[in-house]
Amino acid sequence: MRECRLGCEIRLAKGAVVESDPTLLEAVFRNLFSNVVSYTKEDGSVVCALENGREYFHFTLANTNNGLTSMDLEHLFEPFWRKEESRSDQSHCGLGLSLVSAYARLLGINIDVELVASDLIQFSLRIPMAGIHPTQ
């Protein structure tokens, strides 16, 4: 197990209430956080924020990364896809983000990913508030 030295900033809105399948929702967040911590470069940083919207919560999770490009983003949620440099890491099999995508779809959560800077990737989730039932 590698030592992890990361800067972390967390900004969470108060009173966030979501009606959801707890097992699937936990799996979405567990896999996202696991991915972010595993692939943040050493001495990098992670920023997590949850903001209230009108019908949705906007959750963002950003981290410094090691060389992702905009062309890589379209592959991140594909099963078993891993950027070449990480193929030697046997602790991951390449399913985490594809599970995030599938579970989020089932829960009515919209996920976007973007490079907000050359070394900063951001996952953005639009999560329905309690009482809001998105159409599938």
Distinctive features:
136 residues; five-stranded mixed beta sheet; 29% strand; Heat Shock Protein 90; alpha+beta
Description:
Helix 1 (22-39) packs antiparallel against helix 3. It contains three helices and five strands, in the order βαββααββ. The chain is α+β, with helices and mostly antiparallel strands and 136 residues long. A five-stranded mixed beta sheet has the order 1-2-3-5-4, covered by helices on one side. The chain has a single domain (7-128), classed as Heat Shock Protein 90. A hairpin with a 2-residue loop joins strand 4 (110-117) and strand 5. Helices cover 25% and strands 29% of the residues.
Shape: globular
Order of helices and strands: EHEEHHEE
DSSP helix fraction: 25-40%
Biggest sheet details: 5 strands, mixed
Structural class, from secondary structure content?
alpha+beta
CATH class: Alpha Beta
User: Which residues form runs of ≥5 with pLDDT under 50?
Assistant: none
Radius of gyration: 15 Å
Count of spatially separate domains: 1
CATH-level-4 superfamily name: Histidine kinase-like ATPase, C-terminal domain
Can you lay out the helices and strands and say which pair or pack?
Elements: E1 7-12, H1 22-39, E2 45-52, E3 56-64, H2 70-73, H3 96-107, E4 110-117, E5 120-128
Parallel strand pairs: 1-2
Antiparallel strand pairs: 2-3, 3-5, 4-5
Helix pairs in contact: 1-3
How do you describe this structure in short?
With 136 residues, the chain is α+β, with helices and mostly antiparallel strands. It contains three helices and five strands; from the N terminus they run βαββααββ. 25% of the residues lie in helices and 29% in strands.
